[in-house]
């Protein structure tokens, strides 16, 4: 007899010879302990993808004398003034003497950093294998179609060229789906169909900012006031017919209908704090209404699903949210404050909700983007680059540090492959592998999820 069964019998029979309710109290105590154990074992990844190619050079800025001098000369009119930067505690993993700061519109992220709940991963980018500047100049071993939105989004999300059938988030989901009572909710997108969440075996479940979308007429039993119409619709939608396409459609509709019914019931038992409506003042004196921001609303919908993980019997989940507007070829200094604050305030709201639920340590949020951008200005913006800086946040994160080697932000340096495009010093593969290990994947599962991992050494970056 295993320990859990012994514990059940012990608690269930604790009331023998006493009023029956005492025995029930023992069972209730066991249920509470079981729920707590399930919650403590729960883990979820949340990918926040910044579509368009985020210019992270102004998000994390070197502020030691030499570093800021290099940065300001390279960026010219795009450089953040020192007055708009907020210093960070020393990053122990960087070279002695180097100092860094966040832009003031990222103040919520700075607070998380100082609290040890957020880390920076420096100069991450798409790499097929470790690559030098000489390799780049010779065109050796490079990802296909560098600096192209579609191709680099695909490589970031799938580690394969555009047209890939699955993404590394989905393949992580494939590896953990069997641990879930409802595998259909393993990979969940709040931002539409995404290659990142496509599994080699499993499919992504899509929700909106209002949560799951059901087939209301069929579920309600009435359409246009007629039960007969609803019944006809149900028969037509669920009828497998005699054609393979019709049968596949019927299976999809049935699966969607059943999943919605289960999820709607589970979510109805979860209360998530509303998004604040008080406008946030930006560094350029503009205002940001967080409750109107799609990213914050996506994260709220994700928080609802995370909050009902026990009711759904979920142990591992992978989510995706996204925000657009990062293709800043022009008006960078005008548009960046709202982009920064939108990301920072949304992440801060999401983590505070997780904290309310007691799940802050079980969820890790990380950022991704098509690519970084050029250090140099094209007049009022920056062009497509390569390496860029990213954030990882959550209670399990070993924060208050910068992981990976922070590049030299000077034109013509060994990190510059031309026009201030940074040669990535950290691969997306290593970034993903670190997250996959935290999710509990074995070495063989990681190799399936990240097929080019054998090209790299040192793929545990240590930030979780």
Folded structure, characterized:
The protein is an alpha/beta fold and 464 residues long. The chain has a single domain (33-455), classed as Alkaline Phosphatase, subunit A, CATH 3.40.720. Helix content is 39%, strand content 13%. A hairpin with a 5-residue loop joins strand 8 (280-281) and strand 9 (287-288). The chain starts with a helix and ends in a 15-residue tail after the last helix. Mean pLDDT is 90; it is low at 1-37.
Estimated share of beta-strand residues: 5-15%
Kindly provide the name of the CATH class. Alpha Beta
Average pLDDT works out at 90
- What spatial form do the alpha-carbon principal axes imply? globular
Distance between the termini: 36 Å
How many E-type strands? 14
Briefly note the CATH topology name: Alkaline Phosphatase, subunit A
Give me the number of helical elements: 15
| Largest sheet data | 9 strands, mixed
- Element-by-element helix/strand order: HHEEHEEHEHHHEEHHHEEHHEHEEEEHH
CATH architecture: 3-Layer(aba) Sandwich
| Poorly predicted parts | 1-37
How many domains? 1
Structural class: alpha/beta
**How helix-rich are the residues, as a percent range?**
25-40%
Task: Write down the Rg.
Answer: 24 Å
């Amino acid at each position: 007899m295993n320990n859990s069964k012994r514990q059940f019998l012990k608690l269930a029979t604790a009331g023998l010879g006493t009023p029956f309710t005492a025995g029930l109290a023992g069972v209730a105590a066991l249920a509470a302990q079981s729920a707590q154990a399930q919650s403590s074992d729960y883990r979820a990844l949340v990918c926040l993808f910044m579509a368009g190619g985020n210019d992270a050079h102004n998000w994390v800025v070197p502020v030691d004398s030499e570093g800021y001098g290099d940065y300001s000369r390279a960026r010219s009119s795009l450089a953040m003034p020192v007055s708009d930067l907020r210093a960070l505690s020393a990053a122990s993993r960087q070279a002695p003497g180097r100092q860094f700061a966040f832009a003031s519109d990222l103040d919520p992220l700075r607070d998380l950093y100082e609290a040890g709940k957020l880390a920076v991963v420096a100069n991450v980018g798409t790499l097929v294998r470790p690559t030098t500047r000489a390799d780049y100049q010779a065109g050796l071993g490079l990802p296909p179609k560098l600096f192209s939105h579609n191709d680099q989004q695909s490589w970031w999300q799938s580690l394969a060229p555009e047209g890939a059938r699955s993404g590394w988030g989905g393949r992580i989901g494939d590896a953990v789906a069997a641990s879930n009572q409802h595998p259909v909710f393993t990979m969940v997108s709040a931002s539409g169909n995404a290659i990142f969440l496509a599994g080699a075996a499993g499919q992504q479940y899509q929700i909106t900012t209002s949560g799951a979308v059901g087939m209301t007429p069929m579920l309600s039993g009435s359409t246009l006031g007629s039960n007969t119409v609803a019944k006809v619709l149900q028969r037509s939608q669920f009828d497998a017919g005699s054609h393979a396409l019709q049968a596949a459609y019927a299976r999809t509709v049935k699966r969607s209908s059943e999943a919605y019914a289960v999820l709607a019931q589970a979510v109805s038992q979860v209360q998530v704090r509303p998004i604040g409506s008080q406008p946030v003042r930006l560094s350029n004196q503009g205002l940001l209404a967080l409750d109107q921001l799609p990213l914050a609303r996506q994260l709220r919908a994700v928080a609802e699903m995370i909050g009902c993980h026990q009711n759904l019997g979920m142990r591992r989940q992978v989510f995706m949210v996204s925000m657009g507007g990062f293709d800043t070829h022009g008006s960078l200094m005008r548009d960046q404050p709202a982009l920064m604050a939108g990301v920072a305030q949304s992440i801060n709201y999401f983590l505070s909700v997780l904290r309310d639920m007691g799940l802050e340590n079980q969820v890790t949020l990380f950022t991704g983007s098509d690519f970084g951008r050029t250090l140099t200005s094209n007049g009022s913006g920056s062009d497509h680059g390569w390496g860029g800086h990213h954030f990882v946040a959550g209670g399990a994160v070993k924060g208050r540090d910068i992981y990976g080697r922070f590049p030299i932000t000077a034109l013509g340096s060994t990190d510059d492959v031309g026009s201030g495009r940074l040669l990535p010093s950290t691969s997306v593969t290593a970034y993903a592998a670190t997250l996959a290990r935290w999710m509990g994947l074995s070495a063989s599962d990681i190799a399936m999820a990240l097929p080019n991992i054998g090209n790299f050494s040192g793929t545990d970056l240590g930030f979780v």
